[in-house]
Amino acid sequence: MIWNLGSINIDNFYEVPHLPAPGETLAAVSYGFGLGGKGANMSVAAARGAARVSHIGAIGADGRWTRDRLMEYGVDTPHIAQIEAPTGHANILIDPQGENSIVLFQGANVQLTEAIIGTALAEASHKDFLLMQNETNGQEYAAITAQSLGLRVVYAAAPFDSFAIERLLGRIDLLVLNEVEAAQLLEATGQSVEALGVADVIITLGAQGCRWVSNAGIKQFDAYHVEAVDTTGAGDTFTGYLVAGLDRGMDMAAAIDLALMAAALMVTRRGTADVIPDLKEIQDEFGT
């Protein structure tokens, strides 16, 4: 079982001729909206990876449809609270090469109470997973609570904040971050990922795959090569599938391989949570 303390956003998508420069006004080619937020994306990915996942989060009245959508995608939703604040949202600009630029409004995502988090984790079992990102509040309380209950803590270090990671060191079992975030962490702390004392660290490398750093050493995994049209949500898809694989009993190498396939298929699609592939689609595409 995966307990995901995560953000829920309403994503607004704008296709643009190029990402705007400072001070530039740019007309969008098209507009769309859907379910997003790193937390919601990871919950959907984990559910589509055949894991049972319960989302812990908050929305406003304007976001009730996002809770319904998560439930449709197989995510348990009893611990998504509706509060007075507006639902978080993201404005996402996508250029013709599939690269993106994102502006976030946090909204209800950063108004979670310890009561909301504690009530959810009281239902957790030993060896369940707690998955977190840096788009909500309450991470330290959740990690302490999860550790006391014998849960395995997974932290996806995005959006990057070295202080957020440092507060959780000693409580993280698996850290997932990209190459830029790993460099930022080294600059902020003077410590390489190998020196953090985290049992397993995954550094995602985009089209170059990923690197797994553990007590046994460093292992490189190549990406599956596809024609990317939109990289939005690919990292979240990778992480959700990675944790789903581990929760289903896969070893780390097999879970990483599954996550790389899911992320590769994801970048061939435009959108976020609504277009995350399921296991059958991955099997059909890669013949697994």
TrEMBL record:
Binding-site positions, substrate: N9, I10, D11, G37, K38, G39, A40, N41, E135, D236
Cofactor: Mg(2+)
Residues at which ATP binds: N178, T204, L205, G206, A207, Q208, G209, G235, D236
Keywords: ATP-binding, Carbohydrate metabolism, Cytoplasm, Kinase, Magnesium, Metal-binding, Nucleotide-binding, Potassium, Transferase
Catalytic activity annotation: D-ribose + ATP = D-ribose 5-phosphate + ADP + H(+)
Pathway involvement of the protein, from the record: Carbohydrate metabolism; D-ribose degradation; D-ribose 5-phosphate from beta-D-ribopyranose: step 2/2
EC number: 2.7.1.15
MF terms in GO: ATP binding; metal ion binding; ribokinase activity
Active site: D236
Cofactor binding mode and count: Requires a divalent cation, most likely magnesium in vivo, as an electrophilic catalyst to aid phosphoryl group transfer. It is the chelate of the metal and the nucleotide that is the actual substrate.
Domain Carbohydrate kinase PfkB: 5-277
InterPro entries per UniProt: PfkB_dom (IPR011611), Ribo/fructo_kinase (IPR002139), Ribokinase (IPR011877), Ribokinase-like (IPR029056)
Pfam families hit by this protein: PfkB
Gene3D superfamilies according to UniProt: 3.40.1190.20
UniProt activity-regulation remark: Activated by a monovalent cation that binds near, but not in, the active site. The most likely occupant of the site in vivo is potassium. Ion binding induces a conformational change that may alter substrate affinity.
GO biological process per UniProt: D-ribose catabolic process
GO cellular component, as recorded: cytoplasm
Residues where K(+) binds: D230, T232, M266, R269, G271
UniProt subunit comment: Homodimer.
Similarity section: Belongs to the carbohydrate kinase PfkB family. Ribokinase subfamily.
Protein name, entry field: Ribokinase
Species, as recorded: Sulfitobacter guttiformis
Phylogenetic classification of the source organism: Bacteria, Pseudomonadati, Pseudomonadota, Alphaproteobacteria, Rhodobacterales
